[in-house]
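Chapter review. Work through the record for Amidinotransferase before attempting the end-of-chapter questions.
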Amino acid sequence: MIRPNRFHPNPETAADNRFQSQSAVSADEIAENAWREFDGAVARLQAEGVQVHVFQDTRDDTPDAVFPNNWFSTHPGGHVAVYPMFVPSRRRERRGDVIDMLKDQYRVQVVTDYSGLEQDGLALEGTGAMVIDHIGRIAYVARSHRADPILLERFCTNFGYEPMVFDAVDEDGAPVYHTNVVMTIGTHFAMISLDVIENNTRRAEIAERLAEPGRDVIDLSHHQIAEFAGNAIELSTPSGLITAMSSRALAALDKGQTGVIERSTRIIPLDIPTIEAAGGSVRCMIAGLHLAKRNSTLGKAPK
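Structure tokens for Amidinotransferase:
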């Protein structure tokens, strides 16, 4: 997770991110509120037994640095991917010290860096553009400027996933900017807004594929998606699985939906209203680790 420095909703990404909103408070207040929310989220996750590696953003020109899942991802077998970003300000978020920490503390075999393809106008914004089913080996992707189909095919070939691409639009008919705002996949459940998928045949196919491993599929409404209910993440702790989501997202779910989630995980709500104004929520803040830890690793993660 990346602790923000000068956090604020990014005007460069507002063109296709309809989840963003503006605040009436000053820039300093926005940044301070984001710091408090971030620190509170980290503390809550750590209290639940989640190991969190925290890095401090030090730049003034990376307002979305708090969302690192877009520029890198990790995968079983020691694989790491680094991604090309759609807008220039987000390209500045990539940092070598994060990758160096992964190599030092985890068994990293290969780092595949696609970021040079930005020069060709290609973007694939990590686990924002792709929601990955690690059990079914499927990468679900809503078509957008942030998920180039050529690069997606290359990634899926390199990493051994089947691409499952679909058109997704919000209640007003505008394309969804990132796949991970409309769906999340856990071990025993998945949440998705099936209504956003335009093609009826594709909609049914995706629901079937999500359910294949025996998962419960929770259908989310347009309103629940707007409240970031789709932007959750399942995490492992020493005492079992948890599902982290924002307090706003949890409030949007009904008792039947939370009951399905709680059959296999505990729900951990995080209060991040300021950070959500930038158009992302809890899932976007967490770059998940799917790497084996080195036995010799000691001490705390860098701050």
